[in-house]
Specification:
CATH superfamily: Flavinator of succinate dehydrogenase
Distance between the termini: 30 Å
Order of helices and strands: HHHHH
Strand content: under 5%
Number of helices: 5
CATH class: Mainly Alpha
Largest sheet: none
Structural class: mainly alpha
Helix content: 55-70%
Oligomer: single chain
CATH architecture: Orthogonal Bundle
Shape: globular
Number of strands: 0
Number of domains: 1
């Protein structure tokens, strides 16, 4: 399991200051991230290194991430909140 210091760090990096991103990323890091396998945790950390404008475009489905790792993580987060 991920240690609490790392989770706290990720929580603060997940707060982007843009409501649309915060409502997706903050609950994800709190509720899902600890149970992800190490490779998906690495992907989430990679996602956090992206620019807010890119994240916004991907999460609003105006664009698709070209990086397969980022694309997978965006889909995982969106699938969690969108009705099927």
């Amino acid at each position: 399991m991920t240690d609490q210091i790392e989770l706290n760090r990720l929580f603060w990096h997940s707060r982007r200051g843009m409501l649309e991103l915060d409502v997706l990323l903050v609950p994800f890091v709190k509720e899902v991230y600890p149970s992800l396998d190490p490779e998906d945790q690495r992907r989430y950390q990679k996602l956090l290194a992206c620019e807010d404008q890119d994240l916004f475009g991907w999460f609003m489905e105006r664009e698709e991430a070209q990086d397969p790792d980022i694309h997978r993580m965006v889909r995982m987060i969106l699938d969690r909140v969108q009705p099927k």
